TrEMBL record:
Residues 1-117 form the RCK N-terminal domain. Residues 134-228 form the RCK C-terminal domain. The keyword Transport applies. Keywords: Ion channel, Ion transport, Transport. PROSITE patterns: RCK_C (PS51202), RCK_N (PS51201). InterPro entries: NAD(P)-bd_dom_sf, RCK_C, RCK_C_sf, RCK_N, Trk_Ktr_HKT_K-transport. It comes from Sphingobacterium corticis. The keyword 4Fe-4S does not apply. One of its GO terms (biological process) is monoatomic ion transmembrane transport. This is Potassium channel family protein. Signal peptide: none annotated.
Length: 228
């Protein structure tokens, strides 16, 4: 897959490098030539560019990429201007970065549904999510083990956990399942994702459920691939 990362500070650099190491084509962009030069051998392509300049941004292969991630952090104004510009250019998937509640409010006003916070762990989690569209979220417990939130593979929809036998087949543990629930808040109907409690052998997997899995990443990926 192809991604464009705009802003190569701590967060953007970590994300661009991880996605490249996962085998994706990544274009890393920053206005700082020093940062661009530092990453030229670790990221597929690097470009020195002002991302608030419309003509410069239009020169990027926006239509060919799977997502554009705005990773600019220190300059909040440049981050918002860049995001607005991408929206005007009809980029199909924009992932913004927020460093304040105000910035979050502005992104939501621009109808940017995806955004991340600037911790390095978030860069890892976002890289995992972009690497596999079935992974919704992830948390690295140790060098060996991870907790992954993923869609129920189609093969197991309608089966109980006992019937699916995921632990014996793939050496992973199902911690719980998540399901969207309608709730009333301040007189308004909202949808919140709720855990169903500790998973039991009798738990039946539904199409819209999410699985929370614990195990080695290679085993979890094997489950996802074989369940398609």
């Amino acid at each position: 897959m192809k991604y464009i990362v705009l802003g190569l500070g701590h967060f953007g650099r970590s994300l661009a490098v991880q996605l490249t190491e996962m085998g994706h084509e990544v274009i890393g962009v920053d206005v700082n030539l020093t940062l661009v030069e530092q990453l030229k051998d670790r990221v597929t392509h690097t470009i020195c560019m002002d991302t608030t300049d419309r003509e410069s941004v239009r020169s990027l292969p926006l239509k060919d990429c799977d997502a554009v991630i705005v990773a600019i952090g220190e300059d909040g104004g440049a981050s918002l201007l860049t995001t607005a510009l991408l929206k005007q250019l009809h980029v199909k998937r924009i992932i913004g970065r927020i460093i304040s509640d105000l910035q979050k409010t502005v992104l939501e006003a621009m109808d940017i549904a995806e955004y991340v916070m600037p911790e390095e762990e978030t860069a890892h989690r976002l890289a995992m999510r972009l690497d596999n569209m079935d992974i919704v979220d992830s948390f690295k417990v140790s060098d060996k083990y991870s907790i992954i939130e993923t869609k129920v593979p189609p093969k197991y929809v309608g089966r109980s956990l006992q019937e699916a036998n995921l632990t014996n087949q793939f050496k992973v543990i199902v911690l719980t399942t998540l399901r969207d629930q309608e709730m009333m808040e301040d007189g308004r109907l909202t949808i919140k994702r709720e855990a169903s409690g500790i998973a039991k052998s009798s738990t039946v997997l539904q199409a819209d459920d999410l699985l929370v899995l614990f195990g080695e990443m290679s085993d979890i990926m094997r489950l996802i691939r074989k369940g398609e």
